[in-house]
From TrEMBL:
Taxonomic superkingdom: Bacteria
Catalytic activity: a primary alcohol + NADP(+) = an aldehyde + NADPH + H(+)
Record-level Gene Ontology MF annotations: alcohol dehydrogenase (NADP+) activity; zinc ion binding
Enzyme Commission code(s) on record: 1.1.1.2
Protein's name according to its UniProt entry: alcohol dehydrogenase (NADP(+))
Family as reported in the entry's similarity comment: Belongs to the zinc-containing alcohol dehydrogenase family.
Length: 346
């Protein structure tokens, strides 16, 4: 075991504090990563505060990890010391079920293992990226292309793949009209990626406060959802709507913005249940769907796509000591658009 410094929440809703954790020894097919940057995802806040249910403490959050390979096990063939790599939301799965074999490790039928707040197949809890180093199986490690700086690449390991996967699956492309609900950590990457895929992109946000940013990031149009006229003006407009917000919405109203046969895909995960009148789905043969990150192969594909198109996250780099303040600022929508921890400050 190797002792490394980390930032952890000792209990639910408690402030994060500096501590030390144990990382396993590098096994046959493991990669030891010197973490350089770790993104702060809204999911981290949900889990630290047990918004999604009972959690495991102490908790070291962080599933947007970018770093450099320090050492590899003797059986590793994909990576070597010095390689630039990333780790996203998963660190293991059974690798044998039909979903794993199809590259859908996030939907492993035995149960995928999260990067933190999870228990591995060895029975030990997992600890995330708010730390100096991590040991991960090579099969759950991805290569960060040279065209992406590590700091702007870190958020792609969650925010990037979470938006890339549904945009690709639901056909964002030239000739398609795509709306992104929310211009935050997820939404700003959704705008960038949908634009790069060639779609006509509209941002639907509570206000016009971030309009200039939205247009700069690739949106063609920007509307305030607080204005009732927006829903009248845009009725029946979109082939695809991607909802990135983590608060309950009036999905009936948003479904009214879809064309016949359109889809509203939700990647935000509100803590509260929603109510839905099913007539808003039946009329127009519409789809209300969900999407959860992506598999390892698709995550690598996303990174390559982002490098090809020059897409990195819009970030604010912070010291680890600022993490609790950063959490409050995320909840206040006071970040444009992703906090990234410089792990050298841990």
């Amino acid at each position: 075991m190797t002792t490394v410094a980390a930032y952890a929440a000792p209990a639910a809703k408690a402030p994060l504090e500096r501590t030390t954790i144990e990382r396993r020894e590098v096994g046959e097919h493991d990669v030891l990563i010197d973490i350089k940057f770790a993104g702060i995802c809204h999911s981290d806040i949900h889990q630290v505060r047990e918004g999604w249910g009972e959690a495991i403490f102490p908790m070291v959050p962080g599933h947007e990890i970018a770093g450099v390979v320090e050492a590899v096990g003797p059986g590793v063939t994909k990576f070597k010391a010095g390689d630039r790599v990333g780790v996203g939301c998963l660190v293991d799965s059974c690798r044998e079920c039909e979903n794993c074999e199809a590259g859908l490790e996030q939907h492993c039928l035995k149960g995928s293992v999260g990067t933190y707040n999870a228990v591995g197949y060895d029975g030990e809890p997992t600890y995330g990226g708010y730390a100096q180093k991590v040991v991960v199986a090579e099969d759950f490690t991805v290569r960060i292309p040279d065209g992406l700086a590590l700091d702007v690449a870190a958020p792609l390991l969650c925010a990037g793949i979470t938006t890339y996967s549904p945009l690709k699956h639901w056909g964002a492309a030239p000739g398609k009209k795509v709306a992104v609900i929310g211009l935050g950590g997820l939404g700003h990457m959704g705008v960038k990626i949908a634009h790069a895929m060639g779609a006509e992109v509209t941002v639907l946000s509570q206000s016009l406060r971030k309009k200039d940013d939205g247009l700069r990031l690739g949106a063609d149009h920007y509307y305030a959802t607080s204005d009732e006229k927006t829903f009248q003006h845009l009725a029946g407009s979109f082939d695809l709507i991607l909802s990135t917000v983590s608060a309950p919405l009036d999905f009936g109203s948003y479904l009214g913005l879809l064309k016949t046969g359109g889809a509203l895909v939700n990647v935000g995960a509100p803590e509260e249940p929603i109510a839905l009148n099913l007539f808003s789905l039946i009329g127009g043969n519409k789809t209300l769907a969900g999407s959860m990150i992506g598999g390892i192969q698709e995550t690598q594909e996303m990174l390559d796509f982002c490098a090809e198109h020059g897409l990195g996250a819009e970030i604010e780099v912070i010291a680890a000591s600022e993490v609790n303040e950063a959490y409050e600022r995320v909840l206040a929508s006071d970040v444009r658009y992703r906090f990234v921890i410089d792990t050298a400050t841990i």
